[in-house]
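Justification of computing resources. Each target in the renewal requires a structure prediction run like the one illustrated here; the chain below, 432 residues long, is used simply to show the kind of job we budget for.
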Amino acid sequence: MHEGSPGRARLAVLALLGSILVPLVTAGLRSVLWVLAGIAALALAAIGVWGILAHTGVVRVLGLVLALAAPAAVLALYAAAGMLWAACLSLALWALALATARSALPSGHTASEQTATKAPRHPWVLMNPRSGGGKVGRFDLVDRARAAGCRVTLLDGDQDVTELARQAVAEGADLLAVAGGDGTQALVAEVAARHDLPFLVIPAGTRNHFALDLGLDRDDPAAALEALADGVELRIDLGYAADRVFVNNASFGTYAFVVTDPAYRDAKARTTLRTLPGLLTGEDAPRLRARADRTHIDGLQALLVSNNPYGRAVDAAHPGRRGRLDSGLLGVVCVRVGNAAQAARLVRGPGSGGGLIRLSAATVVVEADTDTLPAGIDGEHVVLPSPVVCRIAPGALRVRVPRRRPRTSPAGDGAADWPGVVRLALSSPRTR
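Resulting structure tokens:
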């Protein structure tokens, strides 16, 4: 954790002031009207996207036209009024202000670290040769793992991952590792947690979100093996949906229903557009109810329960990032959009009372008017008996990572702490 950067804080404050002053100097108080026009365009675009996703035929075509035309019309108005350059500059300064503000303050941490003084003597690693488009072979992970002293088991499509891990423990393994996707990571992590053994993540999957939040280099999977000789241990939480462990998240509702379609794997976009209208507005559209600790929410189309809260619901620079993995809380993201008006309110963000609800809880109960619920557990489709109780197991997993990791998790919830940034910007060396 660093102590904060006054230089970045000053840059953030200057960029924020610049993003406000540029339109004011260019258009005076009329700039407020231009901002409102931009917000209105985003709301209309959201309505258009709702038409694309929730309807078919003429309504879908009209939604596409609206989603494209609303932002284009506002940009044309900006250009005609000589405001386009000011709007673009103001937006760029605002983005710079947010980015530097988040990085100026002390960063969050994935979990508390303890120096691992004893290297494992009998490490075991499960590798999926097909995962990540063949990363195991491309990065020569089998030979590298064996050179590091690991016993390697290669996974084929017919093997039981959990049983393989249990057998490795019975044969004396004192560390369990996985080179594969997050779904496989979760299955082996459960066995490691049950036997209180250290767990090693080798990011050889497609997305490797778990590895990303551990600070590992997804572009160099073999670098994770350095943890065997020179590593530290993290104590992190595990999430449970019924009896299924998840290291990232469990999703319910619309997305979980879409991925049950056999055509989804080969034609994701086409299958999604074909099935979403019925799932969002049809008579059989799923309607979920959730109880997050003492908070009750109903009428949900989709629900995401994560092992620790995500910093931001959408973040292009750091998708699916969590500031820490040892908070002892589940993250909950609920989507409740039943019509175009609620879709427009999504533009106002999760705290606006619109269709996006975000909170944290120790326990989440998910139910519907059916006996079972499809779910996506770390990207793997399963069907669970309803209601599904999701819970967090604090500090359940010992994760061994390299002492030197190139990437760290983002701080906190991802929102800029402007009072803290201003204080840091105005501070002198003596006050720090």
